[in-house]
Automatic annotation (TrEMBL):
Whole-protein coverage range: 1 to 389 of 516
EC identifiers of the protein: 2.3.3.13
GO MF annotation list: 2-isopropylmalate synthase activity; acetyl-CoA C-acetyltransferase activity; manganese ion binding
Family, per entry: Belongs to the alpha-IPM synthase/homocitrate synthase family. LeuA type 1 subfamily.
Function description: Catalyzes the condensation of the acetyl group of acetyl-CoA with 3-methyl-2-oxobutanoate (2-ketoisovalerate) to form 3-carboxy-3-hydroxy-4-methylpentanoate (2-isopropylmalate).
Disulfide bond listed as a keyword: no
Cofactor: Mn(2+)
Catalytic activity: 3-methyl-2-oxobutanoate + acetyl-CoA + H2O = (2S)-2-isopropylmalate + CoA + H(+)
Subunit annotation: Homodimer.
Keywords: Acyltransferase, Amino-acid biosynthesis, Branched-chain amino acid biosynthesis, Cytoplasm, Leucine biosynthesis, Manganese, Metal-binding, Transferase
Full protein name: 2-isopropylmalate synthase
Pathway: Amino-acid biosynthesis; L-leucine biosynthesis; L-leucine from 3-methyl-2-oxobutanoate: step 1/4
Amino acid sequence: MSNRDQLIIFDTTLRDGEQSPGASMTREEKVRIARALERLRVDVIEAGFPAASKGDFESVRAVARTIRESRVCGLARARGEDIDRAGEALAEAVMPRIHTFIATSPIHMERKLQMTPDQVVEQAVWAVTRARQYCDDVEFSPEDAGRSDPDFLCRVLEAVIDAGATTVNIPDTVGYAVPEQFGALIARLRERIPNADKAVFSVHCHNDLGLAVANSLAAVGQGARQVECTINGLGERAGNAALEEIVMAVRTRQDALPVETRIDTREIVPTSRLVANITGFAVQPNKAIVGANAFAHESGIHQDGVLKHRETYEIMRAEDVGWSTNRMVLGKHSGRNAFRSRLQELGVEFESEQHLNEAFARFKDLADKKHEIFDEDLQALVTEAAQEL
Ligand code: KIV
Ligand code: ZN
């Protein structure tokens, strides 16, 4: 048994991820993804926003009926009708959670809600109290916390924890935070809120500046014990923190991060593929962990190093995240060692060193003209080289 704290992985692919323009999912698709998330051993699945539409209500209800091993969560604004819809949609969940939110930044309170700070505190407490009538597990988020006054956040969070919120989530709704400052905000809230130890501190970071994962990890360093994230970093605008990056950073850098997750990392790539296929959002080739090139080596120096010892250029094992293996890509930067090794795998033996040299010279000529050299290209050029000699 390890003595590290558990980092709760809260996946919001089916809710915030679905807010990516063009990523809507049917009920059946949501259930398929929820099953994959359960296999991945995600702790909490945010299945949707039941008050948003009849379809989303049905999807959350179907996920709640299907999932046994993960908590199932529904989002609700701090309004009676939203909370009641979420409570109803989650009625058959084994472990239900209601996640309610209201904005706390000056711009959102004045311009969007047209409410005073006092009214926002009152509404937040009212919403949490109402949600607790449906379940014991209630999460509260002060929306746009990244641009809210920290003293006001302390006031709201203390009040909602008193009202029964078991998780308080700090969203960087517009991806405005930078890691050091965001980590310091979490430290300050945990220090200053007198009842902070009665709730789990969570973070929910958007990627507008490409800092969602860095901000989340800075928060973990300061005591956040739940991270909200999505598969492939899907989500509103530039997306949310990518689950696969958070999980593998925690696993790979145990020396720097004092937590562990329950995730079965071998399910990461299959889940990423499923989400990409269902949403139609292709994963960029150089995406960390799940991109096609994440474990591919093209340059001769790197290939030679990896063939001698994988850890020269790999900090994780491809197999540990669900790839069948790492990959040597033959292209114009590749060297003789990788070329020979690939041909050996294909069962090709060179009769002489001269034959290898001739084939390698032909390979380099072809590589200057083509992005990637495939096995068929190799077979052809080896035959041609043999005929030439
Ligand atoms: O980004 C955000 O603020 C949200 C909240 C609903 C948590 O998605
Ligand atoms: Zn969000």
